[in-house]
């Protein structure tokens, strides 16, 4: 099974041609996050802006993809329109398995198509089709067209953007197989800048599994570990929306642009409420037995005689927070309605919700006028918020075009920076305190999943900088290995280093398995070097005043502790990103 080299398909959209390259380096970067950074070092242009045609858009998988369950993610690497630095975004769906069945470890897309186009790739084919008729259409409509245009089903993955990506919104996402997304930091805008409406990956080949009993026995053991554990119950039953009630009880759930951290109406948008009232079914990413994707429904009347059309919408904790509590919306069906609108337009749901929450507060404070927003804005006003999402995705006014570049950039012009809930990018749904705020603000992806600072906040009793810093760095190192494999982070308590080493060894990567910790640290350093080389300065990252005013079950945020932790974490990041000697 061992493949020492990576099989990489490089595509130039300007010419419609590509080539397959065999690249060495498995022992240095594993795959996934490590491989994406390695490929950006080779193909990227740090000195050029994010939307330059020569900047690559990179998709990578790992050595265990297709061989073990929950090795189901794909990493996208690109220079971000949000901050013009190297960035990663991760997504599930069928994309990883489709790449494996297409006999590819990575896809690198460069150039700009002369006209709006769709890229189709497989194990033995490559085509760039003009698709001007898809430009301007929403994500769901594009999916319907592409399923007719390209054959395949279970091993086909469809990646597409909506109007937000076409307009260059800095937090436009890439929709993957309808219910998953490369959500954060603007991968959709990178596709839009390349006139690339969609990518269809057709897994039209096969790959052999290891012979003998050892692999089969290990697979069975891993499968049981993943399905006969509390993890299965947690993620399959209520899923991450279970966090809504828990965080609200802790006074750690952001409400109405973080003007509050709890609300008695949280029960109406809790995971329990969604399960009782709106849940239709569960589904899963390819190669996953857990089924954590929860699909709810909304219905739309299309005839007076009580005739309704039903649509299915995926939901998780973060979309419920962003389109629910953060915007003061407390009806589960109305939250789903806003999630669906956001998905159709191709917006990252977290950034869109937080950006609109800031806009509502700015409107209420008199910083914005109706000529800016085109309509009055209010917390809980779902029709107005839905219209505002359309204006945001399509850049209807100068204000919306600026807000589409990030909440902090809009606040710098219109005022209201003190209450912009931005931690490197628009914050995730955890008002747990200092360690989480620093973790997302300074973390590599500015993501709540970089190091899970929210978990430390909930468990630690004393505020100690060294203890918090050690936790963040240890979590980051472990997660870098997992995202280089590329594992779903829901499985992180199962895929501990010892088990990962067994999985690698049974596929023939015994030497790599023995060096896993060393390789993980090297990947961690490589990524930080790349991010710093593209302009990142951790000392310049600011935490807005609104975050300093948070009060939860532990009391008010300790500003001195947070400042000290931020300075310590910034110092370590600079050390990790120091250029390699020799």
Give an account of the 3D structure.
There is one protein chain. The chain is of the alpha+beta class and 582 residues long. The chain has 3 domains: 6-202, Aldehyde ferredoxin oxidoreductase, N-terminal domain (Aldehyde Ferredoxin Oxidoreductase,  A, domain 1), CATH 3.60.9.10; 229-423, Aldehyde Ferredoxin Oxidoreductase Protein, subunit A, domain 2, CATH 1.10.569; 425-576, Aldehyde Ferredoxin Oxidoreductase Protein, subunit A, domain 3 (Orthogonal Bundle), CATH 1.10.599. The strands form 5 sheets. It has a 6-stranded mixed beta sheet with strand order 2-1-6-3-4-5. The chain has a 6-stranded mixed beta sheet with strand order 8-7-12-9-10-11. A hairpin with a 2-residue loop joins strand 18 and strand 19 (555-556). Helix 2 (32-43) crosses helix 20 and helix 2 packs across helix 23 (516-533). The longest helix is centred in the last third of the chain and has 21 residues, at 465-485. The two termini are 34 Å apart. The mean pLDDT is 95.
